[in-house]
Every structure is written in C-alpha cells, then in structure tokens.
Amino acid sequence: MSKILWISPFSLHDTSSGAAINCRYMLKGLARQGYEVWACTTFIFNHADGAKQDFGDLDQIIHHSPNNVFIFDEDNVHYVYPRVGQISELNMTLAECQLFFNTFRQILEEYEPDLVMGYGVSPLAQTCFAEAKARGLPTVYVVCHGTYGNYLFPNIDLIVTDSHATAKLYAERDEINMVPVGAFFDLRDITAPQHQKLFVTMLNPVEHKGVAIFAKLAKVCQQELPSVKFLTVGPRLTEILGLLHEKGRPDVHPFTPADFPNVYMVAPQADMRPIYAITSVLVAPSLWFEPWGRGASEAVFNNIPVIAANSGGLSEAIAGGGILLDTPEHCQHDYLSLPDDAEIRPWVETLKVFLSNNSDELLHQAKERLSQDNALYRLIAVLEPLMAQKVTALDLNQLSDSALPDVHF
C-alpha cells in the first residue's frame, strides 16, 4: 500500500477555506482508493468560525489541553495536529514552528511515506518541502487559487490544480506548468435529501463575487418577477448595498438595504444542505478570476441550475449545468459599479428561462462530467509515476571513509 503524507500549517478542517475543503476531500478520496494517508497540519484557520463544525470551542482545545500534539483518525485519514497558540499563521511563535517541523521530521522517519504533498508558501512550509526533498521523497504542491504568480515553488516535483483555466493562467502569465485534475467533493456532505424551489441564491455576497450584479438583478426582478424571492448566504450585504454606485457616477449611491424587501439574508453556514434544499437557481456573478467555484458545483450536484459569470474555472465548475454570461468590463475594474439596464438584461432573461423550464437533463449530464471518480483517477494518474520513482537520499554522514569515492584534484 502506497503511503501519502500531507503537509501544511493550515488546517484541513477549516470550513471557511475552499482550498482546505477541497484538499480534505481529496485525501478522503485517496484513502477510499486504498492509499494510506496521513496529514500533518495544525490549528491555523482563515476565520475562527471555520473551526466550529469539527472542533467546537477551539480556544478550549488550544489553551486548556495539556497535549502538544493532537492525533485522531477521520474517514481513514490519520491526522497529526501540533499545538499553536493562535489561529493566524503570522502569529506562530518560533517554538511552535519548531514543534511543527520536528513533528514532521518524526513522521517522515516513522511513517516513511512514498510521497509528500501539501501547500503553503511560508518559510515553515518551504522548510518542510526542502526536508522531504533532502530525503529523496517526491513532492507535490496543490494550487487552489490564482495568486501564486510570484512564487517559484522550490523543492516541488509536480504542481496540481483544479481547473484547466487555472493551469492556463499560470502557464501564460507566469510560465509555471500545472496539471489540472478537477475539484473534490463528498456528496454526502453537500447533497440535500429533499428540495423546495423557493429562492434565487447567491453565496458569499461580497464585492469581488459580483454583489453589484446580484443587487441589480434583484432590483429589476421586483417589477418583472415580483413573486421571486432572493437569498444571500454570507456577511456584509447590508453594508455593501449602500456603497454600490451607478455606472460612471461613483458619487451616486442609489440603493439602501430598505430597497430590497425581496432579498433575504442568512449568515455563513457550515452545513450548506439546508440552503441548497430551498434554492431554485444559483447566481454566481463573480467579477474576478475564479479558479473553480465550489458553490457552483455543489448546486449542480443538488440539481440546481447555475447562472455564472464567464470567469476562470466557473465553466468547469458548472460543467454545462447552467449558463455562462459575460460581466460588464466596468464592473470588473470597479466591483462597486452597478450594471446598467441593458447590461443586466441577459441575467434577467436567463433567470426567467431557468425558473420556467425543467433543467433535469442538463443537470444530469453535468453531474456525470463532475464525477468524483474522474477527478480521483486523473490525480492518481499523475501521482503514481512519482511514487514509482521514489529514491532514498544518500546520507554521507553514515559512510565510512573507505566507502567514499577516490577523488583527486
């Protein structure tokens, strides 16, 4: 049985991190395929709320447990969590970095993995990858977003990413080669058992995700689709609505939260199944480069059509289970700029089509394209050759003088 070791200071149990969710499901999938998988990570989270689903009161664990290292098994993956005092990577102390690195080295010696994979650009993560390479282990870096253009990926044999769009971005912009394998999901965690088509939903309604387009769509639909209700999942919508401005008029702010009686808001959800259970159409009008778009894929798996921006990997995320629309160029440059009546028209008309037509066949084909077997097989196809080439680093300190080559200068 081949052994795979994941390494990253960032917790894979962070429900506020799409990258962590993707890689955690990836490791679960590899374990299901018969690989022995360990993960060395720690309590670094994007937000404290990201820890609640799996760890509850993280402060209780960090500050009141006597353990320096926390060890547990989940879904056939063996997790090793060295202690940290705070959830921010920037606040890790030298002693905590040393504990993490020493734990990693001990795992290398006792577990003897065939391959080390992970992510993280900090000196701690880089040191771990360098240690793996020094021991002759093949290394794989997983990229889940498009902001590593200035990173050289030292001591990395292979870089994998989710979408062809992300691979193309890095190849053309940075001359960095990556292998796209797809995104990873556990359908048990995201698929609602029953559905009521009640809302047109947007996830994470923040500026770069296209809240300006969503707001204009909801406003126009007050007149054209008065019975349709809209839903947002995430923070800050009421704050952002007042900042949106008319096209070409940055000092004119036409909206207040009171102008949207047809829009309902809920806080971020650790379990999205209740949201998908009441969603009829998902809107993903992102204004920046989307490496994938997990929410769009999750909607498709729930038989929900998606109206998405033609941005990055969103086309691969919906896999034909919806429609891609261009976003106005001025909105891409100024996330608070509202589309005008003509620019929002394609979004309104597409929404009308999805609300009045059955999309089951479209979504059935999309789900087949998003098959998790396909993603796993693509990943395994690039990992296996690396593991077959595993070599053991030569430790010159263990050689006698007579074993050294006879070299003359």
Quick take:
Helix content is 38%, strand content 16%. With 409 residues, the chain is of the alpha/beta class.
3D structure, described in words:
There is one protein chain. This protein is globular. It has 409 residues and is an alpha/beta fold. Strands 3-4-2-1-5-6-7-8 form an eight-stranded mixed beta sheet, with helices on both faces. Strands 11-10-9-12-13-14 form a six-stranded parallel beta sheet, sandwiched between helices. The model is unreliable at 392-409 (pLDDT under 50). Helix 4 (94-111) packs parallel to helix 5 (123-134) and helix 8 (211-224) packs across helix 14 (341-356). It folds into two domains: 3-185 and 374-391, Glycogen Phosphorylase B (Rossmann fold); 187-367, Rossmann fold (3-Layer(aba) Sandwich). It has helices at 18-32, 52-55, 58-64, 94-111, 123-134, 164-174, 187-190, 211-224, 237-241, 273-276, 294-301, 314-318, 329-333, 341-356, 360-369, 372-388; strands spanning 3-7, 36-40, 69-74, 77-82, 115-118, 139-143, 158-161, 179-180, 199-203, 229-233, 263-266, 279-284, 306-309, 322-325. It is 38% helix and 16% strand. It contains 16 helices and 14 strands.
Keywords:
409 residues; alpha/beta; Rossmann fold; 2 domains; 8-stranded mixed beta sheet; 6-stranded parallel beta sheet; 16% strand
